[in-house]
Structure formats: C-alpha cells, structure tokens
Design a protein that fits this description.
Blueprint lengths: L1 H18 L6 H14 L5 H13 L12 H13 L11 H20 L10 H10 L6 H9 L5 H13 L3 H5 L6 E3 L5 E4 L8 E3 L2 H7 L17 H13 L8 H14 L4 H8 L4 H8 L8
Antiparallel strand pairs: 1-2, 2-3
C-alpha cells in the first residue's frame, strides 16, 4: 500500500512538471522544477545555485534534452571540481560541489521520469561509480604509460601531464599563460600564480619545463583555448584507453596524482598543501587519503 502511494505521488509530481510552461530544453525544465518547489514552500537556494552553475557550464546557451546523458553529467561534475564560487573568489568546496552535482543528478532523474530524457541515455549507477574512480590517483607507472601513448589532441595530453607534475588545477590551466613562468636570480624557472584564485609560487621542475617545449612567444596562452566539455572529456579518456588505463580520468585525477606522488616521496603534507594552494591542510589530508593504500 505504501509503495502504491509513493508511486502515485511520484506520478502526480511528474504530471505537474510536464504541465508547466517551459522552454523545450533542460534549463527550462530545471527552472520550472524550482518554481514547482517554491509553490510547495520547499527550500530552493541550493537548486538556484546549481542551476547557475549549469548555465555557466553551457555558456548561457540552450541545453537540449538529447545532450544530457552520462557523459554530460561526468563533464559537469569535473567542471564543478574546479569551478569558482559565486559567493567569493575561492573555488567551490568539495562539499558544495558534491551538493550541486547531486541536485543536477536528481533533476536529470526527474526529466527521465517525465520522459524528456531517454532512460537509456543515462546510466545513473555508472555515473556515480565513475565519479568516485576519477578521484583516485594514477601510479607513477600509469603516468609513464600515458606519457608514452599518443593522444588525438596533443594539447590535452600536455595539459593533463603538466597538471600531474605541478598540481595546477583545471581552472588555472585554462588561463595559464607564458607570463606565469618567471626566472629568478639563480636562473630557476618559477610558476607565479599570484593572479589566480589560490595565489602561490613554486619552482618548475625540469621535467615539467621540457613537457611544455619551446615557447613561440613570450606572451599568450600556454595551452591555447582549452575549454572543458564532453568532447574534451571523451578525448581524455580515449587517450587513457590507448595507454591501457581502463578507468575514468578527469583533470582532478592529475591533481590528486600530483599530491600522492609527493606524499609517496615523503614530502610533508604541509608543503604539498602549499603547492596545491589549499587554504587548509585538512583539504590536502582528505585528498591524500582518497584511497587507503598509497599509489605504487
């Protein structure tokens, strides 16, 4: 009896959503879901913020239902991992990013229930499994395999490996310019991220410098017009497959790998935290303890 009532309630909710005036895209559906919640006196602050991140992710453009699938959800999750907060100049906390992802995840479920999105387009259990896998570090051996494998778009390979060697996050890679690399009095190359959300300076290793190659100009973007989207996500993971790495990669994987490699070399957590730009060493501890045993 209780199950029938829950089913009837869910069906009634879906009918209300279908009946609302809406744009024929996912963003319009999302807005109407918020209106529906407000009419029933439900808290919508986090829903409003989650929608803002979706709109920002698609550059304010329409988001057809047919484009919302498992790959899109994973791309959106990766974007949240390095997105800036609308409330201040810092990046989103892990908790906030997870909250907004769960909300969008639930809205996609609603859209599937209303038959706006094909059920076969989204494997919800797979999305959660792959999301967890992307936060596990690569071993030094796996990183070497990636370095040796060819990537359809070399700039994606270069940016990912550079992140794994420096700990620079995706948002910083997008805006990383040659001007961010300076040379000190001793001739040491220094990465100067004073203008970033997490300001810091750190030495650039010879390996990372060689990876960048000779610069054609003294100014300008190092990695060109990198923009996180489904296409880049697919490119990254096809490259991983070609290297024999059969699990999901995101640019957060590279950053976590950087932290673990240093930790395995007995670098103090406090120093790793400074290199990552973490304001609180607890964030670094959580990152290093993503898995119980260190990467080989």
């Amino acid at each position: 009896m209780e199950e029938k009532l829950r089913t009837r309630k869910r069906k009634s909710s879906n009918e209300v959503l279908i009946g609302l005036e809406q744009r024929e895209d996912f963003i319009g559906f999302f807005k109407n879901l918020i209106l529906h919640r407000e009419r029933h006196n439900n808290t919508c602050l986090n829903y409003d913020l989650a929608l803002r991140y979706v709109i920002h992710f698609v550059d304010g453009k329409e988001l057809p239902f047919k484009k919302v699938n498992s790959e899109w959800l994973m791309s959106f999750k990766t974007y949240l991992e390095s997105a800036g907060s609308f409330k201040n100049k810092s990046t989103l906390s892990t908790t906030s990013a997870a909250t907004y992802f769960r909300i969008v995840h639930s809205v996609v479920r609603e859209a599937v229930g209303c038959k706006r999105i094909e059920a076969a387009a989204v494997n919800f259990s797979s999305v959660w499994h792959r999301a967890d896998a992307s936060t596990h570090p690569l071993s030094a051996h796996e990183l070497q395999k990636l370095a040796q494998a060819e990537c359809r778009h070399p700039v994606v390979k270069k940016a990912f490996l550079f992140s794994a060697l420096t700990g620079i996050q995706w948002q910083e890679l997008e805006s990383f310019r040659w001007e961010h690399i300076i040379v000190d009095e001793q001739g040491q190359s220094i990465v100067d991220l004073a203008d970033q959300i997490e300001p810091r300076q750190f030495p650039l290793s010879d390996q990372a410098w060689e990876l960048l190659g000779a610069k054609e100009e003294s100014q300008g973007s190092v990695f060109g017009k990198l923009q996180w989207n489904t296409y880049l996500y697919v490119t990254l993971n096809k490259w991983a497959i070609s290297a024999g790495i059969l699990r999901t990669l995101t640019f957060q994987t590279a950053r976590v790998t950087f932290a673990h490699l240093l930790y395995n070399q007995n670098v103090p957590v406090e120093i790793i935290s400074e290199l990552l730009g973490h304001k609180n060493v607890k964030s670094t501890v959580r990152m290093i303890n993503v898995q119980s045993s260190p990467a080989a």
